[in-house]
Amino acid sequence: MRNIRFGGRWLKIALATLWCGVFAVVFLLPTVLTFANSFMTETEITANYGAVFQKNETGGKQFISEQVNLKLIPDKVTFSQYATTLLKSPDYLLKFWNSAILVLPIVLFQVAIAAFAAYSFMRTRGKLKEILLFVFIFVMLMPYQVTLVPNYLVADSLNILGTRWSIILPGIFAPFSVFILTKAMRRIPKSLIEAAKLDGAGEWRVFTQVCLPMCKGALFSVAILVFIDYWNMVEQVLIMMPEPDLQPLSVFLSQINTGEIGLAFAVATIYMVPAILLFLYGEEYLVEGITYSGGLKG
Amino acid sequence: MAGITLKDVSKIYPGSTGEKAVDGFCLDIKDKEFVVIVGPSGCGKSSTMRMIAGLEEVSEGEIHIGDVLVNDVQPKDRNIAMVFQSYALYPHMSVYKNMAFALKIRHLNKAEIDRRVRETAEMLGITRLLARKPRALSGGESQRVALGRAMVRNPAVFLLDEPLSNLDAKLRADMRAEIIRLHKRLETTFIYVTHDQTEAMTMGDRIVIMDRGLILQNDSPKDIYDYPANIFVAGFIGSPRMNFVEAEVAREGGIVVAKFGVTALSLEKTNVNKDVLASLVGKKVTIGIRPEHISVADSVAVGEGLLGASADIVEVLGAETIIHTDMPGDLRIVVREFNDVPVKRGQKLNLAVQLEKIHIFDIETEDSITVRPGGTPKSARSKIAKPEPDSGGEPDASDNGGGES
Prior knowledge:
A: mainly alpha, B: alpha+beta, CATH 2.40.50.140, 2 domains, five-stranded antiparallel beta sheet, 23% helix
């Protein structure tokens, strides 16, 4: 009886591990292939994937699956794509800079504003607060496309269409961050805030020296999620800011895909680096943040 | 250092349909006094403390710390320190920083902060913990740090809100003694809130017993034990709690007795005015006898003050034995026997009652009729609406179970 139980436990563990392993491979494979392909020559990539993009007789694209060859190790390692991307073409660095100056203020101000709002939601009592929080959650549940048109109209009326402000301003006021940080701040025991008050702290000191350090995890996770969200934005930019010189790397990547496929792999790899580094740095916080939000992402 | 005066203080929480959590609370706390506010959950003791701290607004009445009316004074400006039940240590700060936090806010120089923190840590024996974060502390250590954080500011008043509730029994006893020592050493006013009658009895110079927002008795521990003002207080203080029996007062052979079941106990030796006693004849009263005032008598002993009972549950505690007994008339009496008397379950017993220790309570108002030397303190009991017969939380005259209230 004991042996059967023991065996059953191991079988469960083995099945769970297998299940997780399959998922890990499925999710990791595109990333690993992108990374591997970025070191292949254009010829090798075309040989492996060319058929996928082969044009048919009517001029459309034809998918020929049997010709796809997923290779993890290049026949000949080359850095030419990286050299082209980083050294020979100024486009990449320009677009990287465009991404940075769009995303960094959004992350910084969104986290700051959300932290203030969350503190207010935590500290104030009354029905008005509850109604306001409900509105926040309601807006959060709306898909981005729903708020895109109002955002466009507001940007137009503010005369900021086509400028970076048309992306930054709607970006820094986000209900999702407020929601996560409100939940995090509500987990701070009331007695801690009362203890700080008795110690002589005013609201600002309670906010900065008690609440913010205690929500460090949630703040980081919000920052990471917002960064990843805006680092990958495409539609907002295409609609609000059609001027190519201002567009970020995410849009550039989607355009480069259509032409030089080898270059696209290298650009995609470099493009992933900030997000991956950020994820590796704040993995724990990210998990914490997702836990706070109840596994929801708006 | 300061005394505290509460004048007719009431607390009505928003959305509570006008019900008073604290109702007309009047109390004078002398400088350097150790006052314990005790009562069951929801009696208003914590609300009272929070109003003194400034964490809750005072709905009615006045609170003075020293000579200053502090109703509208911010908590930080009241010069008080509070130790919370949960300790409320800042988890992201080391013990040192936790203790130094209030001093930094007061812009003391670094050397002075360091001196005070180390001096307090030394006094509490927590110097070795100064670099640790709260999560690396045990319950007892956290408690000491919480005390240290309060002490380091040299406040005029210490407020302690059930600070020992989260500790195990042994540690609680140790910390109890530690806090008493601390009070003597610091010579500061201490207000201590607890629901534990043992803490109340052992720690306070004075005990304030509350129920449903009202003060039921405000007295020294000894006087509260000897002269409880009403049934609630009598049942709340003492472990096992006082036995209550509904009895009829009668005169038998010229002696006034309390008759219940098939038993009659003489009331002649009780501290009740003779005229009052005579006026009770023919009326129903509630008799209260503490378990320690009943003992197992020699089986051949005869005389007044003896009850016949049979042992139901016997709890041998070493130094004493708690015997739950059944009496005719479906009565249950708990006995606290200090002598080494071998008692078995089901054994027939003769119980000897110390007649002079019997308490008599009015069956209607539940106030004590027993006369106390120097006069009986006014009970606030009558301000409480009588509970419904089936409502919980109140001592029932026929319920004589032991244990802490």
